[in-house]
Structures are given as structure tokens and as C-alpha cells.
Amino acid sequence: MAYIAVLGHGTVGSGVAEVLFTHAESISRRAGEDIKIKYILDIRDFPDLSYSELFTKDFDVILNDPDISTVVEVMGGLHPAYDFVKACLEKGKNVVTSNKELVAAKGAELLSIARKNNLNFLFEASVGGGVPIIRPISTCLAANEVSEIAGILNGTTNFILTKMIREQMSFATALKLAQDLGYAERNPAADIEGHDACRKICILASLTFGSHVYPDSCYTEGITKITLADVDYAESWGGVIKLIGSVKMQENGKIQIKVCPMFVSRESQLGNVDDVFNGIMVRGDATGDVVFYGKGAGKLPTASAVVADVIDCVKQQTSRKFLYWEDAKADFVDDYKNGETQMFVRCKGANISEAFDAAYKVFGELRELSRKNPEEGEAAFVTPMMTEYQLEEKLAALKALGVETLSTIRVSDY
Ligand code: HSE
Fold first, then answer.
1. DSSP state, 223?
2. Is residue 167 within a helix (H) or strand (E), and if so which, with residue range?
3. Ligand 1: distance of its center to the CA of 260 in Å?
4. Which of 324, 313, 320 is nearest to 72 (CA)?
């Protein structure tokens, strides 16, 4: 019998309990022994559950119980999750977490403690929810040099954008719906401002390139400024707007990493990843592009990834530990403004022809876009490929010609 403890009984924690209770038999068969939850830690009371007797408010009871070989951390947030996880690893307990904030901020340190103590620290659920991505990158694709990863990594924003695109639903109504469905973070700013996707791409970058990439080194832009006008222009371009997290290894040995809304062609696989689904494209030198697709948020998809990690911990008490990366290397992350992109620009002049005249003067060539019922003086276009520094200069030149930029969205080539 393997005894585990679950820290947190929110959306994911209750899902973990549900999966472990309902699939007990098949899980035992796969793990090679029964897995039993001995404690659930939560500051709230749950008197009406059939397993109410498992709850404790005292973390030390769990820490000091030698029966507990694996601890599941599904509380979210950095504190006290970090303190609890670190204490468990130092005490000789394997840890499984779905907490991307924790892994993105403290992954290198926690992996190093786990390695020193010959323990597993696993976090499949931290990226992609129910979509397997951590294990495939670290094992199945291990023979490849991965040069680039690009993905729709946040279910809530993808759900909101899909509702805006398909149903012209307002941003606020779609966000409320996502929260009601249990997709959103406790603080939805983490979703809509892009921080959740940022943590996830940082985890994938750290895992892929072996050096910790901290979230504050990743340029991050959310979806709060996206309007239905931008959605219309994306459609006239032949695509949709998606929040994309991307990382790319460059020839100079530095990575370009960012999270931002992008125009994505409807012909690309990522352009067809809708609703709460995540899609992650991994570009390997031997495999070419491999795309992972599935539900990136929600109680049971995420719990499924957590419980699979628990099964691994139980099966592999004395072996494995393949996840590892070093602490950050200096200058590993390149200035995002050195990166090249095409940009969608929506702008406004005294009238549409003056706006386009100015845009041609500044950019030389453009791809003009149109939509039904544009605002007076509104012009929209896609620029040629250039660095973000060059773009910044050109947008300043456009402003000097009396044309105000209303929005800019990067254009992907995925
Ligand atoms: N809020 C996250 C999302 C949950 O919407 O993707 C899963 O990480």
C-alpha cells in the first residue's frame, strides 16, 4: 500500500480525489500496489464529503508521517506551496504538483533538492492540463534537438477568444463563463494578462534547453486589449487571434521567448485549436513538427495528469528522475526586440487614404486589410518582416505623420 497526501481541495484537488476513488482498481494495477489518500490538507471544512475524515489543517502531521511517500501539491500560488514542497522533498517524500507558478519560479531549486535526495519531483499537469507534454519532451523527443515550441497554453483565454470570434460575445461575459466552468485561475488576471501562459512556456523552455528561464525574462502581453475590430481584420487576413507562448533557439545560442496575441492562419493546426483546448507545437530536427492537443484546463483533465505522476512516483520509488534543469545562465534570454516579426497594425488618420499614404511612406510595402463598417479614418495592414526595434521606430514615424496606432498584433508563421 502506498499512502499519499493531497495539499489543497480546490478544483484540481477534488478532481484528484475523485479520480483516485473512482479508478482505484485500474490505478492499483498500473502502479503495482494500492494507492490510498491518507490526508487532505485544506484550511476549509468539508463535513459533507464521504471522505471528510481525511482532512487536516496541520501540515506537520503530513510532513512527519513516515507512511507518506508521495505528496500532491495542488494548492496553487507560491506561498505556502513552495515552503511545503521544499519541506517534503527535504524530508524524503516525492512531490507531484500542478502548480505552474511554483515550477516556473522555483523549478531549478526544487529539482536539485529532489535529485540530491533521489526523489521524483513531477509536474506534468503544470503545462497543458490533461495534455501530455512534459514527459513527451523529456523522453519521447529526447533524441531530437528541439529548436522551437509554440503553443496555445491557456484554456481560459482560448475559450474567451473563441467566444469572441464565433459568437461575438463580449470579453466580460466569456470570462465569467470560463470562471463558472472552472477553467480560470483564482485570480483571472493571471489568465487574461498572459502570466499563466508565460509560466507554462518558461517551464517548457527550461525543460527543453536545460537552463531555468524565469517568467520576468519573458515578454508577456495578454488579451485584454483585443477588440472585435481586430477579430474581424484577422478573419479578413485568413486567420484568427490566439494567445501564443513561444520559444525559439537562435544561432547565437540565446533564446527568444514571449507570450502575446498573434494572428494565426486558419490553415495551421494551431489556428484550429478552439475553446478550452490547448495545442502545443514542438519542432524537432529529427521529427519535424509534432503537435499535442487536448483539454488544457478543468478539474478532471488536470487531475488525470496529476494522478499519472502519482502512479509514476509509486512505481518508481527508487529509480527514474529524468526531469532536470540547471539554474539560469546569464544572458540566455535575448532581448525580445531583437526578434523579427510581421505586425498587424490598425491605425487612424484624418481619413483612410491619408492613413494608408502615411503607412506606405513609412513601411514601403504593406498588405492592406479591410472589414465591414470601419471607423472613420481607420486603416489596417500587415507590415513586412522586421525587428521589433525597427517596428517601434516606424510606428513613431507614422505617429509623426499624424496617424495614431490603435492596435498592433504580431503575425505568426506557424
Ligand atoms: N487557468 C488555466 C487555463 C488553468 O485556463 O489554462 C490550467 O492551467
1. S
2. helix 155-167
3. 16
4. 313
pLDDT for residue 414? 86
Sites in the chain below the pLDDT cut of 70: 318-322
Pocket of ligand 1 (CB under 6 A): 129, 154-156, 183-185, 191, 196, 296-297
Buried b (16+ CB within 10 A) or exposed e, 247-281: bbbeeeebbbbbbbbbbbbeebebbebbebbbbbb
Cβ(68)–Cβ(89) under 8 Å?
A: no
pTM above 0.85, yes or no: yes
User: What pLDDT does 318 receive?
Assistant: 65
Q: Are strands 367-369 and 277-284 parallel, antiparallel or unpaired?
A: unpaired
Of 140, 197, 202, the C-alpha closest to 333 is 202
Amino acid at the residue 327: D
Tell me which residues are annotated as active site: 200
The DSSP line for 353-397 is: HHHHHHHHHHHSS-EEE--SSPPTTEEEEEPPSEEHHHHHHHHHH
Burial class (CB in 10 A: 0-12, 13-18, 19+), 83: exposed
Burial degree of 390 (CB within 10 A; 0-12, 13-18, 19+): middle
In this structure, which amino acid lies at residue 41?
L
Contact 52, 73 (CB under 8 A): no
Per-residue pLDDT at 261: 98
Atom number in ligand 1 closest to CA 190 = 1
- Residues 138-172: pLDDT tens digits? 999 999 999 999 999 999 999 999 999 999 998 88
**For a substitution probing ligand 1, which of 103, 152, 160, 183 has the most ligand atoms within 8 Å of its CB?**
183
Ligand 1 centre from 302 Cα, in Å? 9
Nearest to 220 by CA among 239, 240, 247: 247
CA of residue 164 to ligand 1 center, whole Å: 18
Burial 136-149 (b: 16+ CB within 10 A, else e): bbbeebeebebebb
* DSSP 8-state class, residue 335: P
Give 336-394 pLDDT, tens digit per residue.
999 999 999 999 999 999 999 999 999 999 999 999 999 999 999 999 999 999 999 99
Tell me the DSSP string of 41-82: E-SS--TTSTTGGGEES-HHHHHT-TTEEEEEE---SSTTHH
368 CA to centre of ligand 1 in angstroms: 35
Which atom of ligand 1 approaches the CA of 191 most closely? 1
Report which ligand 1 atom has the smallest distance to the Cα of 159: 5
